[in-house]
Request: fold
Amino acid sequence: MTEEERYQGPPPMIRPGPLPWQQQPWPVPPWQVQPVPWQRPPGPQPPPWQQPPPWQQPRPPWGPPVPPDVRWAPPPGTLPHDVPRPFLLAMRSRDWAWWRPVLGLLLVVVVFSVLSVIAVVAGMVGLVATQGISALPEGADLDLIDPGILLLVNASLIVAIPVVWMAWAVAHGMRIGWSSSVLGRFRWRLVLPYALIALGTLGTGIGLSVLVGFLVGGEDITGPVSSFGWLLAVVLLTTPLQSAAEEYLFRGYLSQAIAGWIGAPRAGAVITAVFTATLFSLVHLPPDWPTFLDRFAFGLAASAVVWLTGGLEAAVVLHAANNVLVFTLAGALGDGVATDEVPAGAGPWMLLLSLLSMAAYVALVARSGRRVRPETVTAAQDLRFPGLPVPVPAA
Reply:
């Protein structure tokens, strides 16, 4: 066949084979393998209250892998406790670890010491600038009826309140309000009813003790002091805060740390009450055993009302009422009112009156529970198991 005789028409039609991307079935996209959140999988569905919350649902297979050191956390505002907790066990939250109270106590000791020294130095500079070098106390003998000295002492203790708040925020990552009560805040509604109880019980005991001191102890009325107006202002403005600071330290953070390590509510309450009452009495440097017993009983009474009410409010009111009444009477009547020890002459009688008044305060606080209804356990939201957690309110 010559060149001219070759086929000149269109090329023959050949049925093509499958193209490369047609040789295998098209892969199913990931969003068709697993049902997307708005699609229900086939089969019966659990009720809404048994479905896991969004942060507990299985991660879709097509997403990026999660690093092994990353864990899901509940959204902000979620209650920190899986089960209701009493006030002393408020530290035992979902993220509880034994080292957190250790870190918190170290922070409290170091920062409180530094701030107290700064407050004392600033107060001494102020005393020298306003009253001269003679206004400074000699040695460890402090005249707490002097308004300047009392203000200096109160200021050095008041700094404990923000220090305790800092420990809660830094060491525990929790709201500072858990240092106050099971509601995560200071319950101001409880102050007035407990103040009335304190004035009726503790006020009566202090008044009778002062009377016994003058009648039996042979004391004389030498007041009012020359600076009674300034003393009254310092007492009313700073002494309640000083009393609250001591409660935040002893019945608050220290008690919560020890009870958190123990874990058992009742055993923790008893052990912390005895330990903190002993320490509380010792740091007040009692000169004799009646004074030690008086401070020790005061610490036990404060721990008791903390356990009964689920917070520090009743203890703060007890402490503030005691200090305000004592310093006010001491300024008004003179040296016959003891502010730092039980007088030797009427010691047993005054100790007995003090014990009876504190016991009466605890009993009336317990009896007022049905009327005042203080919350005694925290609210909770259990995230330990799958399912939509139902919050449990504080009670």
Summary: Residues 90 and 374 are 16 Å apart (CA to CA).
